[in-house]
Design a protein that fits this description.
By secondary structure, the protein is mainly beta. The protein is built from 2 helices and 11 strands. The protein has helices at 6-13, 82-85; strands spanning 22-37, 39-45, 56-66, 71-80, 91-98, 103-106, 114-115, 138-145, 152-156, 159-164, 175-187. Strands 1-11-3-4-5-6 form a 6-stranded antiparallel beta sheet, covered by helices on one side. It has a 5-stranded antiparallel beta sheet with strand order 2-8-9-10-7, with no helix packed on it. A hairpin with a 4-residue loop joins strand 5 and strand 6. Mean pLDDT is 87; it is low at 14-19.
């Protein structure tokens, strides 16, 4: 998959290791259109790939607005990122960027996301995990814009968990790209690949 806008995704979801000495592989689908998008939704199966401290694995979706002068985006999904969480668990995460990467972060590492749900926490580990050839645990995800406030709401399993205020973004009155993506990142000097699952 050729994904010119995916580099932002690597920037915010792979924090904590030397990206200059790593290889990132993407697989997924990008939808672009001459019309505006006001949301994206779908389901991903939740897995717990074995990864080393310097590796990552994730499955997510994002919505973005990109033109020649600006790039704004919001992402939601799961990842295994030992360098951030200091564990090998699968975690729920969100990320955002605005104004060509001048603002933004993952989870709640910077101000921006307004949490409204008290039961689902951004960054929490996901304990129900799919197993190959046995059963699949799916996570329903959505990023939807409120038509009145223009805020971007995050939904997990069809439940509103919080939102990104419209004021955070320099160019997200609507979006012109929606992406469903899987990603692995691996240091160039490592022989193992971060998609080995039990």
């Amino acid at each position: 998959m050729c994904c010119s806008s995916c580099s932002w995704h690597k920037r915010y979801t792979s924090r904590g290791f030397n990206r200059a000495e790593s290889i990132t592989n993407y697989a997924g689908a990008i939808l672009t259109s001459g019309t505006a998008f006001y949301g994206v939704s779908g389901s991903v199966s939740v897995y717990n790939p074995k990864v080393d401290q310097e590796q990552t694995s994730d499955a997510s979706m994002f919505i973005a607005n990109q033109d020649s002068n600006n790039f704004d985006a919001i992402s939601v999904g799961w990842h295994v990122l030992p360098s951030l969480y200091q564990d090998s668990a699968t975690h729920l995460y969100i990320a955002w960027t605005s104004n060509n990467f001048e603002k933004g972060c993952m989870n709640t590492q910077c101000p921006g996301f307004v949490q409204t749900d008290k039961l689902i926490t951004i960054g929490q580990s996901l304990n129900q995990i799919s197993t190959i050839d046995k059963f699949s645990i799916d996570l329903s995800l959505a990023i939807l814009q409120n038509s009145s406030t223009k805020d971007w709401w995050i939904y997990i399993n069809e439940k509103k968990i919080g939102y990104y205020p419209a004021s955070l973004f320099s160019n997200m009155a609507s979006a012109n790209q929606i992406v469903w993506i899987g990603k692995t990142t691996n240091p160039t000097n490592t022989a193992t690949l971060p998609w080995d699952m039990e």
